[in-house]
Design goal:
The complex is a heterodimer of chains A (510) and B (75). With 510 residues, chain A is mainly α. Chain A is built from 17 helices and eight strands. The chains are: A mainly alpha (510), B mainly alpha (75).
Chain lengths: 510, 75
């Protein structure tokens, strides 16, 4: 594929990365804080105490600020699909159409009705209906995320579809298979539960700031208790959903699993790396040890990936060069099949144009034999299937360490809240204040693992990223990337400024 | 009956918007942002490539297939 301009591909990648990561600054706070607002308001409705109402309104205001700045930042990705990723966009239109349309309808009705009641209806609707609206915003926001994550899950594990070689589109065959794909489900539960942790740490960080300053002490302590319980439960749930994600990677994206575990040579009863530093400059097949330093848990990876301590887990080498004993086909063989599929696709197209029905049918029959390897036909070498190992490995491990830290942190907050000595633990309050920023890093790293770890694929095994792009000038993408960068910086400064002003005013100002 | 129901909803929103404090700033940001995104950026920088360059779905499909099979067809 000599015609592909890799500069355009990489600039389009950079632009999508910037947009997605910027969008994801707001989403986890919205998902987590919406439920916390619902919890706070439920306590207010049950107890009837005015301080809980004031507390709820304060956090709801911060929720509103975050929502307002973040809203519509996701639309930009849809623009990018049409301009930078037109081939991809065309090919997946039938699959993504339904989930994204449902998401749009959900978001519209949610925002136009319950969102308005949540902010405008304090004095104008009954307590019960207002509480119902707050819960609907929380549930609706999270269900809205479901549809986006279903679309993403499908790219990672394309099920419930068939490829139509005449229209060049993946067509949905079974909506429920797409919706309830195990990868989509583990993605949804892991992304939302980790967002609950982010939302909880947002509340803990701001409340810790108040306690350190000796301001709004009672409100801060109340907020911390609820956020710590929610954060702790969500941290435990995130660990389980993360484990499930790794298990699904074991059969759906074994290369990603091998990359984030730094596993070059597969084995039975494979160890899991608890702590390790990768050998600098290590390349596949160079004979160097993968790790300069490592602490591993015996047989841990086999259990994580296969639920069997003695099962074989393929390494990068097995997946690239094949392993006959374990029934793993080499990438070189897959590339041959993929090239045959491309040739048959071309033959089919030529026969269609020539009006030769018999030749078209024959080409279609041949294409169907190899269509599952279509994407491999575009690769230049088997090694191209290896994602950036160091980025994936370190992102994954730092994410796991942070997740464990958040679990312990929320446990400590809960313990000292119970002992009523939280105000004296300045070190913990400083740690709690910093934890929100760490949570944002952890949340972003989760996406780095998910997306960098599945390179080179836009659609797993079927379409590499380089074939998904539009052939446009790299300069065009660079220009819009620069504009986005400036726009995002201005919006982020605006959010931080408004948010800080509101935090400074405190609950009395809402 | 129905008109009074709609009037109630209208008043609910009108009252809500007029009482906003920080919300007014946020709405200004939303409007400016949506204008920049949907009008300026979409119009000048993000034309839909296939919609703009081709008039039928068959032409779009042919173009994508040509992209997918380019190296084979060029040989």
């Amino acid at each position: 594929m000599g015609e592909i301009d890799l500069a355009t591909v990489n600039w389009a990648r950079a632009q999508f990365t910037l947009t997605a990561m910027y969008h994801w600054l707001f989403v986890p706070i919205t998902l987590g804080l919406s439920f916390l607002c619902a919890f706070f308001e439920t306590i207010y409705v049950r107890t009837g105490k005015a301080e809980w109402k004031q507390l709820t309104r304060f956090w709801m205001t911060l929720f509103g600020i975050n929502f307002a700045i973040g809203v519509a930042t996701g639309i930009i990705m849809e623009f990018e699909f049409g301009t930078n990723w037109s081939s991809y966009s065309w090919m997946v239109g039938d699959i993504f159409g339904a989930p994204l349309a449902i998401e749009g309808i959900f978001a519209f009705f949610l925002e136009a009705t319950f969102f308005a009641v949540m902010f405008f209806g304090w004095e104008r609707t009954s307590k019960g209906f207002h509480l119902f609206s707050t819960w609907m915003v929380a549930i609706g926001s999270n269900l809205s995320a479901l549809w986006i994550l279903v679309a993403n899950g499908w790219m990672q594990y394309p099920v419930g579809m068939s490829f139509n070689p005449e229209s060049a589109r993946f067509e949905m065959q079974n909506f429920w298979d797409v919706l309830f794909s195990p990868v989509a489900m583990s993605k949804f539960t892991h992304a939302t539960s980790s967002s609950f942790v982010v939302g909880s740490l947002f509340v803990i960080a701001i409340s810790s700031y108040y306690l350190l300053r000796g301001r709004h002490v009672e409100m801060a302590k109340k907020s911390i208790i609820v956020a710590s319980v929610f954060g702790l439960l969500s941290s435990v749930f995130t660990a389980f959903t993360g484990d499930e994600s790794a298990f699904t990677n074991g059969y759906s994206q074994p290369m990603k699993l091998a990359a984030y575990e730094g596993l070059y040579d597969g084995s039975k009863g494979a160890n899991i790396i608890a702590l390790g530093i990768l050998t600098s400059g290590k390349k596949l097949g160079d004979g160097q040890q993968p790790f300069a330093f490592e602490v591993s848990i015996p047989k841990g990876l086999s259990f994580l990936a296969k639920r069997d301590f003695n099962a074989f887990v393929p390494g990068i080498k097995d997946l690239v060069y094949g392993n006959q004993e374990e029934g793993i086909m080499s990438v070189a063989e897959k590339m041959e099949k993929g090239k045959a599929a491309i040739a048959d696709l071309a033959a089919m197209q030529q026969a269609r144009k020539a009006g030769d029905g018999a030749a078209k049918e024959a080409a279609l029959a041949r294409f169907k034999v190899n269509q599952d390897y279509l994407g491999f036909g575009y690769l230049n070498s088997p090694e191209e299937t290896v994602p950036p190992v160091a980025t994936t490995y370190y992102s994954f491990h730092v994410m796991v360490y942070l997740g464990t830290f958040f679990l312990l942190l929320t446990l400590l907050y809960l313990y000292f809240s119970y002992k009523d000595s939280l105000e004296d633990k300045k070190w913990l309050l400083v740690l709690g204040f910093c934890s929100f920023f760490l949570a944002m890093i952890g949340s972003q790293l989760g996406w780095v693992v998910a997306e960098v770890g599945r390179q080179p694929w836009a659609i797993q095994d079927l379409l590499p990223v380089k074939m998904a792009t539009t052939k446009i000038a790299a300069g065009h993408v660079q220009a819009s990337l620069l504009i986005f960068f400036v726009l995002f910086a201005v919006l982020l400064i605006a959010e931080i400024k408004i948010m800080l002003k509101q935090i400074k005013i405190g609950p009395e100002g809402v | 009956m129905i008109s009074s129901y709609f009037l109630k909803i209208y008043r609910f929103y009108l009252d809500g918007f007029s009482r906003m404090t920080i919300g007014k700033t946020l709405w200004r940001i939303i409007f400016i942002k949506v204008f920049v995104l949907l009008v300026v950026l979409k119009w000048f920088f993000f034309p839909d490539f296939l919609q703009t360059n081709f008039s039928t779905d068959q032409q779009r499909a042919d173009h994508v297939i040509h992209q997918l099979t380019g190296s084979v067809q060029n040989n």
